[in-house]
Amino acid sequence: MSNVKNNNDINAGKIIKNKTDNSIKTGKKAEIESGKESGKGSEIESGKESGKESGIATEIKEKKDKKIDIRDYKPEDKTILSIQNVNRIYKDEESEVTALSDINLEVKKGEFVSIIGASGCGKTTLLRLIAGLDKPQSGELSLDGEKIVKADPKRGYVFQQGGLFNWLNVEQNIAAGLKARHVYKEKKDKIPEYIDMVGLKGFEKSYPHQISGGMAQRVAIARALINEPELLLLDEPMGALDNFTRAALQDKILEIRANTGATMILVTHDVDEALYLSDRIVIMTPRPGKISEVIDVKLHHPRQRNASDYIRLRNKLLEKFHLASEPIEPEYSI
Fold first, then answer.
1. pTM for the predicted model, two decimal places
2. Dist CA 293 CA 281 (whole Å)
3. Staple partner for 156: which of 63, 224, 244, 305, CB 3.0–4.6 Å?
4. Please, what CATH class does the domain formed by 79-320 belong to?
5. Positive or negative: CA dihedral 228, 139, 135, 104
6. Phi, psi of 238, rounded to the nearest 5 degrees
7. Tens digit of each residue's pLDDT (9 = 90 or more) over 226-259
8. Residue ranges per domain, the chain?
């Protein structure tokens, strides 16, 4: 009897031990599962999500920091500016002058369009109407489907002489655009970015009388761009510059266009300037100002001024203004 009892106790002990082992195993398994859900597993998943977010942020920063080559830039196939049947007549007690007659034009998003023509053909008048600084007698202008009725920061304007404030330095002149809109506090940190964009880093504290004409025009461009306009209007901003400064500024404008995607409209008397910069060239006739022709410029950037295609198109433009010289007949002696 004693042996039987001892065997039973041993067997019972084994059963208890097995149950205990199973409980321990079960507990460890539960702990492991729990750890996966609430501990290490959570940390791993959190790490994955954190890494994913970090990767996206890095990608966005890289895209922002990466400059687009002007050779890769293409305007969008979307109309942003529409001008329909616009007429502008100036009247006084004694006379009436038709500055613009039946103007119709559409401009694509991100496109560079130049308007050229003789003095008095209404180029600047048309630019002022687009800016909302003047109103037509009839017809309609709209930006991205919204009728243009007054000036708006969506349409930046760069004047012929820049229009800088002489008592403000470069940094303060650029900030003036933000202060006019009452958004200086929110966007003042963007000023260094635009100073760098126009290549004026190091001249932040310089005043207009301390910088060149080309640099002053770059300040004016930065002041217009800092408001992030959908449309940048350029009223002969390079007309008073020497050839070397003008060429450098033209390249800078193309670089800015590529990296901001801004739509640009330039008024100029310079056929070469229009040809070098534009996707399309609008030719206007004298009073009454009308659009006589719109020429597509299918030359890749950067454009070579001495390339045969460039010279051929330049001569074609000059012929339209009766400025092309007659071909010289070769002289032969026998």
1. 0.75
2. 8
3. 224
4. alpha beta
5. positive
6. -110, 10
7. 988 999 999 998 887 888 888 988 999 999 899 8
8. 2-65, 79-320
